[in-house]
Automatic annotation (TrEMBL):
Organism from which the protein derives: Zophobas morio
InterPro entries, per the entry: 7tm6_olfct_rcpt
Name listed for the protein in its UniProt record: Odorant receptor
Keyword tags: Cell membrane, Membrane, Olfaction, Receptor, Sensory transduction, Transducer, Transmembrane, Transmembrane helix
GO annotations of cellular component type: plasma membrane
Amino acid sequence: MVNIIQKSFGLNLKVLHIMGLYSYGKSSIFLKVRAYTLYFTLLVLTTVLIIVKILLAKSSNNLEANLMFTYVADCGSFFFKLLPFLRNSDKIKGCINFFGQKNFAPKTYHERKILDECVWVCRRNSIVYFYGVLLVNIGWNFPVLFVKGRKLPLRLWLPYDPSSTIVNYYFTFVYIAAVIATIYNSYSGTIMDPLIGGLAYHATAQLKILKHNLEHLDKHLAHKLSKRNEHIIEFRCVQKHLESCIDHHKNILWFIDEYEDCFSWSIFCQFAGSMFAVCFCYISLTLVPLNSLEALTYFVLAFNLSFQILFYCHYGTLLYEENNDLSNAIYMGPWYKSC
């Protein structure tokens, strides 16, 4: 049976697995080698070549410069954002799959309804964001094929001019390599954002379940009594259920500590990179006609960059508010019957 984590983030985990950043089974040397090879060749090397090109350029078009600054700002943050997935993959895998354990499976219709809504929201966010990034890649990589002259989707420093007829047969290879690098950089650094934000929403869903259980101890008690023929002392049954709620709360708190330890650095890097990338992207929007394909590409890119931050802000706020409401649920529940 597929657990709720696989239902929620199946698409995200498949993409991360292709890039070597997530393992379905035990982490292998081959997966590590693949992850580091793609990281250094497609992310680090590409960004370094762009920076060298910018530094050595004698004159530059403002639009192209802003576009490359946007790319460097975003991908520069990915240098550090991906490091936890490379260095602590097993620990992050445990954190991702924590709520997929059997003890978090829904036991009542109300719990199933809460988790089904959570799974739907996470799947929706992942699918919408996946195709949003795909649209940005199409708008970034393919319009250069229809402009006059030979141009690459990235302004890379190369030891030769790719538009030169002498090395014309190199252009196709370099273009394909640049497209692959763009796709890797865009998905490796962004597909984890719906995942990380969605995990916070799963913690929120668990707090909703806990809050409901605390507020309706009597209903749980009646449910248990109706299924048993032997007499059960009421306060002992309520006390036992409260102990179960306490264990549930401890597990949620443990997850939050692990979540912060695993992803706080990645979240900080994303905020820092997006702050600069969004600014450069909106500057680029002022340099092109608003009815052009370039304007649409920059608008979608700025929207995606802003959406990356929204995942953390929105679902982090929901988690914070749900945790604050927990004390009210404890007070409103029939806790006095356990005394």
